[in-house]
Specification:
17 helices; alpha+beta; 6-stranded mixed beta sheet; 4 iron, 4 sulfur cluster binding; Nit/Sulf_reduc_fer-like_dom_sf; oxidoreductase activity
Length: about 600
């Protein structure tokens, strides 16, 4: 028997949802029948519109879609203007105030505190500059990830920008493929650094080469079934299949169609593509694709996984581990990646960044999978002037090791399934570590990722140090807590964290992190990266040597434990709004 959500989607899904959403927006929150709200919220997600959570009724998050992280000139400005005008809620975040954007781990942007009544106006403003929220959520293909500088990097081994656009238009744009068993992630990597992180995607193309008819051909090896969530991570597995660039699109499409037709629609805990690959096996999938594709399949070519350096736990000498800093783009141009603490930027700062992108570059901004924006096409002779801009004091191209390596998902601030607050807590924790923990001068990277729950949107499983939200009792009171693990990386052979301590009260986590990092600094061999040290030491030994500890760190919402309507506000949640956006029970000023 199909899961009940399959019945909901069968009633309406995909492009058809938009018209109904616009009707509800025109009539107001109360026009959504109360007993049908969860069904409509399921459908809204296809258009990137998520109801935030209980207690925040009538407020929504919108996730945007920008394939491969590309923001063309004027797009960041339009998004920032929308955030400034519409993304303002009834309570301020104590660190970021009101009106800001969140950069995501899939090279996109999220907006919060949006009223249902404002969604059509927001769409109108964003779509006028080519920004869409279609297929940004729900059981469909999510934002396609690619090398953040695809088409701009002179060292790109296989050109992928055109392929990314083809997949975006022809596969994600096909409403017949809108209703998948579960969300689905596509990755296309054309560089040798592995920055699209093919290992943790449902279908992934990685650069490779092999002889074909006596000629040396560049193309892609195909992997399937990667993912992180549910404490059941999988690395994408090889199909022993090499495809040329001209056959890449149809190969991806056939696997998407196969999963759409044959994927599990009964058990939502076991219906991601990684479980489909578990069940079918790579040999059967390859044989099935051979029957469905109209070209002869070739065995996998020689890949570059041993050269992957992006979040791979290798030293800087071996290559870039992120896109932060000044990087050569061509002989005359550079791009500059700035570090945004835990991916959150106030709208006013995003507007300033858009201005700087216009002034110093082409106006184009790219987004990386580490929640950071890149200003593109900066003439080399103007780089130094750009680096002197005051905004870059806050969003530095040369940040501290802690700020640079930190990532966080949405958490209980807005997410309905999270168990712990993440963004503000991580920002405070990283600042505390920077003030209190010294690291050797040659330690320039330390990836600390935080997820509010086991869905792992913050990619904790792939971090040097991963945190996942939990709850625990402390002094007889329920508090927010974290499970803490070490040793993840995405490289030639991806590894996932092993847990060293679980259900650590949130106010003891910074002390635990300090103890882990200081133990690493004391015990490491010269030049040894954190990932190398973990592999050499073992997580059981690390657990013995580094214990949770109370410090002078003050947690922003230790005792919330998801009981409040908003972790940083007292009192009742906001009232739902009428068709004009006025809270019900409150008289309008008109």
């Amino acid at each position: 028997m199909a899961h009940k959500k399959e019945d909901v989607k069968a009633g309406m899904y995909g492009d058809a949802v938009r018209e109904k959403l616009e009707e509800f927006a025109e009539s107001g929150w109360e026009s959504i029948p109360e007993d049908e709200r969860e069904e409509w919220f399921t459908r809204f997600k296809f258009w990137g519109v998520f109801h935030q959570r209980d207690g925040q009724e009538s407020y929504f998050m919108m996730r945007l879609n920008n394939c491969g992280g590309v923001l063309e000139p004027e797009q960041l400005r339009a998004i920032a203007e929308v955030a400034d005008e519409y993304a303002r809620g009834p309570a301020e975040n104590p660190r970021w105030g009101n009106g800001w954007i969140d950069y995501t781990t899939r090279q996109s942007i999220q907006l919060h505190w949006l009223k249902l009544e404002d969604i059509p106006a927001i769409w109108e403003k964003l779509e006028a500059v080519g920004v869409s929220s279609r297929s940004a959520g729900g059981d469909t293909m999510r934002n396609i990830s690619g090398c953040a500088v695809a088409g701009k990097d002179a060292d790109e081994y296989v050109p992928t920008r055109g392929l990314l656009d083809e997949i975006e238009d022809g596969i994600r744009g096909d409403d017949d493929l809108a209703n998948l068993p579960r969300k689905f992630n596509i990755s296309v990597t054309g560089c040798k650094q592995g920055c699209a992180q093919d290992s943790i995607n449902d279908v992934a193309l990685e650069p490779a080469h092999r002889p074909v008819d006596g000629e040396h051909v560049r193309g892609f090896n195909v992997r399937v079934g990667g993912g992180l969530g549910g404490r059941e991570p999988r690395k994408a597995r090889s199909l022993d299949l090499f495809v040329t660039p001209e056959h890449a699109y149809e190969t991806v499409r056939e696997f998407v169609e196969l999963y759409c037709e044959e994927g599990n629609r009964q058990n939502r805990n076991k219906n991601r593509a990684r479980f489909f690959v578990d069940d079918w096996g790579t040999e059967k999938i390859r044989e099935t694709l051979d029957e469905r594709l109209d070209f002869d399949l070739m065995h996998a070519g020689t890949d570059f996984r041993d050269e992957y350096t992006y979040n791979a736990g290798k030293s800087d000498d071996e290559g870039d581990h992120d896109h932060v800093g000044v990087h050569d783009q061509t002989e005359e141009l550079s791009y500059v990646g700035v570090s945004v603490p835990v991916g959150r930027m106030p709208a006013a700062d995003a507007l300033k960044l858009a201005d700087l992108a216009d002034e110093y570059g082409s106006g184009e901004v790219r987004l990386s999978r580490r929640q950071n924006p890149l200003v593109m096409d900066v003439p080399d002779e103007r780089v130094d002037d750009f680096l002197e801009e005051p905004l870059l004091e806050t969003y530095s191209p040369n940040p501290s090791v802690f700020t640079r390596g930190g990532m966080a998902c949405t958490g209980t601030e807005f997410c309905s399934i999270a168990l712990a607050e993440t963004k503000t807590r991580m920002a405070e924790t990283l600042g505390w570590l920077q003030r209190n923990v010294d690291v050797p001068d040659d330690v320039t990277q330390l990836k600390i990722h935080c997820s509010g729950c086991t869905a792992d949107c913050g990619q904790a499983m792939s971090a040097d140090i991963g945190l996942q939200g939990m709850r625990a009792r402390k002094d007889g009171e329920m508090v927010e807590a974290m499970d803490v693990g070490v040793g993840g990386s995405i490289g030639q052979e991806p590894t996932f964290i092993d847990w060293v301590h679980q259900r650590v009260p949130a106010d003891e986590v910074p002390g635990l992190l300090a103890n882990i990092i200081e133990t690493y600094a004391e015990m490491r061999n010269e030049g040894q990266t954190f990932r190398e040290w973990v592999a050499a030491t073992g997580h059981e030994t690390i657990a013995e040597l580094a214990e949770p500890e109370e410090t002078d760190y003050v947690d922003p919402c230790l005792t919330d434990a998801k009981q409040a309507w908003y972790p940083f506000a007292d009192g009742d949640g906001p009232a739902p709004t009428d068709a004009e956006g006025t809270p019900l029970g409150v008289e309008s000023d008109d």
